Amino acid sequence: MHKNGRITRREYQKRKRRKKVIWTAILILSILIVILCIIKIFFWNKDNQTIDKIEKDINTKKIVKETKSETAQNINPPKNKDDDYWYYINMDMMSVDFNDLKQKNSDTVGFIKVNGTNVNYPIVQSNDNSYYLKHAFDKSKNSAGWVFADYRNDMINFDKNTVIYGHSRSNQTVFGSLKKVLNKSWYGNKDNHIIKLSTPTENTLWQIVSIYTIKPESYYITTKFSDSQFKTFTQTIKNRSQINFSGTINENDKILTLSTCEDVAGNTRLVIHAKLIKLEQR
To answer: What pTM was computed for the model?
Structure first.
């Protein structure tokens, strides 16, 4: 640089080359980010297509039937005859032929349907809560995962709190459509407040009693309790509900909990609690 403050031609060229290098690096980085995003979108769509194909294959087998039951048992009926419990126990029960499902995946332990959503899936169970976060029903690696039961739960004799998980996919597969439960168009229709769950040994109906969003925690997915702990648990989950459901809960109930991510980042959980109201031995 000259003493009078002006830069020399050599210094000017050096600065120009430096700027060029910086902008070239920024351009290359931007291109790489775009390529990575395209690759991610490609595999995301591929995983979704795999889930769609598996789901359609299951549905074409026509293994699910809904019928009235003359032998089902009412569970923990309330004394109040005006309780909506008495409305829900008149609904059809779901019965599933598990032979084909068991042949395709021996981890199959049930089948779940949530009224007013796309949730209509076989339930699997592994020896941990991570395998089916990244594997589909056919056990292929898949970021969409599958609907699975907590490994701590007994799916033959339901625990006090039976927990079912699934990813919240934006294309509405797996548990993605559960976000509908926060819309008035869904919870304003009381026919939606029922979950049908069939296992190889039982067909069941569960009345939804609480829905809320919450930061990730271990409390609502607790599966084992003392009597006093469970009484507190039922009061807590009922008080948390963002929707005023008519159904009551007490320490004699059994609870079904559905858990999924409420936001893309996975910082919030959408939680649905339902109580067992009807059971039919198979």
So the answer is: 0.85
